[in-house]
Automatic annotation (TrEMBL):
The keyword Heme does not apply. The keyword Glycosyltransferase does not apply. GO terms for cellular component: membrane. Residues 353-411 form the CBS domain. One of its GO terms (molecular function) is magnesium ion transmembrane transporter activity. Pfam families: CBS, MgtE_N, SH3_actinomycetes. InterPro entries: CBS_dom, CBS_dom_sf, Mg_transptr_MgtE_intracell_dom, MgtE_N_sf, MgtE_transporter, PRC_barrel-like_sf, SH3_actinomycetes. This is MgtE intracellular region. Keywords: CBS domain.
Length: 416
């Protein structure tokens, strides 16, 4: 085996994994080790690799030909695509060991990383750990030391099991990942660790991650949070996602959380809850890009450059009489981003409106909404009531989310 001889887990997480012919397999997300009852370095059993479908599989270390600074290369042969399931004697280095509380020479410390090295038997052993002294204030203020595995107390099977952990280093790793990938990683963590990470994430980041979780995982995490924190996270979520989640809760819990939310944040959520989940009203977001008729093309383009907008919402702006907050004044039409890019910036958006595109009524069923998107080749469409008020916009990702099986986030697209 060629490549680097010492690999730290935090550096390995996220590396692309390639087959022997250069074909992309996925990305490394974690290391699986078999902890021992003594303090000797444990054997690294393999990698947890996330495929492009977000399914996580196990790749034995004997299948690894090379670990380079920017890639992992696998040997010739087939790879099992079965979903990775952690066994009782296995521990995830990134998911469970990082942030573990340990002792070095009688001094309390936190494990911030762990390194593996190849042995003569072609096995890899987890031989080194990076620890930071706990000073009574924040652990990150202490000095980092790289020590031999056996110099650290607290890493045997019995010591790791059930001990409380912080999550600041794991959260730092998650900061480099997309919310959907963090959600996938969170789903695969043990329940205790999942809660610790959720508590360490800020409200905005946790909201983004919860939006990507399965319905069961969403409800479980929300139930774990205290009511005040749960309300704050719901406020940070997109109103349509918050409404979908609240609709699945018992009526008493839903009303309690709505009461704790700020009125301006709960108002659009309450409006969405009036519609059935499988209608345009239930699918829509109440916060599309809405402009007044006197807005210029330059202003419209500035609005769609907002990094918080999804690509689907940024594909179209809607022009309405004041007020421009939904439900708006009279709906006048929409302007497609491709058309705006071809027009002089000083021109008015009202001059390039698509007034022929049909609108969706809020009561339109999912099948009708799906046919609408297919017929007009759209990724975003307006929802307008009988009085010509724009209520919101449906995006294609929300449609797909309701068309796919309930467990698609867990099983991956290959099993959809």
């Amino acid at each position: 085996m060629v490549g680097v001889n010492r690999v730290f887990a935090a550096q390995l997480a996220g590396l692309p994994v390639f087959g022997p012919d250069g074909e992309s397999i996925g990305k490394a997300r974690d290391l699986v080790v078999g902890l021992r009852i003594d303090r000797q370095p444990p054997r690294v059993l393999g990698l947890v690799v996330e495929l492009v479908t977000r399914r996580r599989i196990f790749v034995p270390m004997l299948r690894v030909t090379s670990i380079e600074p920017n890639a992992i290369i696998l040997a010739t042969g087939s790879v099992s695509l079965r979903q990775f399931h952690q066994r009782a004697n296995e521990v995830l280095v990134v998911g469970e060991l990082i942030d573990a509380r340990v002792t070095v020479g009688g001094t309390a410390a936190v494990l911030v990383d762990a390194a593996m090295e190849p042995a003569r038997t072609r096995d890899w052993r987890m031989t080194r750990v990076a620890v930071r002294e706990r000073t009574g204030r924040l652990a990150r203020r202490g000095k980092v030391q790289v020590l031999r595995w056996d110099e650290v107390v607290g890493l045997s099977v019995s010591e790791v099991a059930g001990q409380p952990q912080g999550a600041q280093h794991l959260v730092a790793i998650f900061e480099t990942m997309r919310a959907a990938d963090v959600a996938s990683a969170l789903h695969d963590l043990p329940l205790k660790r999942r809660y610790e990470v959720a508590e360490a994430l800020d409200d905005e980041r946790l909201a983004d991650v919860i939006e990507e979780l399965s319905e069961d995982d969403q409800k479980d995490l929300l139930a774990h949070l205290d009511d005040e924190r749960a309300a704050d996270v719901l406020e940070a979520m997109n109103p349509d996602d918050a409404a979908d989640l609240l609709a699945e809760l018992p009526e008493r819990d839903k009303e309690r959380l709505l009461e704790l939310m700020e009125p301006e944040e709960s108002a659009p959520v309450k409006r969405l809850l009036e519609y059935s989940f499988d209608t345009a009203g239930g699918l829509m977001t109440p916060e599309p890009v809405v402009l007044a008729p006197d807005a210029t093309v330059a202003e419209a383009l500035a609005h769609v450059r907002n990094a918080d907008l999804t690509p689907a919402l940024a594909s179209m702006v809607f022009v309405c009489r004041p007020p421009t907050a939904t439900p708006t004044g009279r709906y006048l039409g929409c302007a497609h981003i491709q058309r705006l890019l071809r027009e002089p910036p000083s021109d008015l958006v009202a001059g390039v409106l698509d007034t022929d595109l049909p609108t969706l009524p809020p009561g339109a069923k999912l099948g009708e909404v799906t046919r609408y998107f297919a017929a007009y080749n759209l990724v975003c469409g307006p929802v307008v009531d009988e009085a010509d008020h724009l209520l919101g916009a449906v995006t294609v990702d929300d449609v797909l989310d309701h068309l796919l099986p309930d467990n698609w986030r867990e099983t991956g697209l290959t099993h959809a």
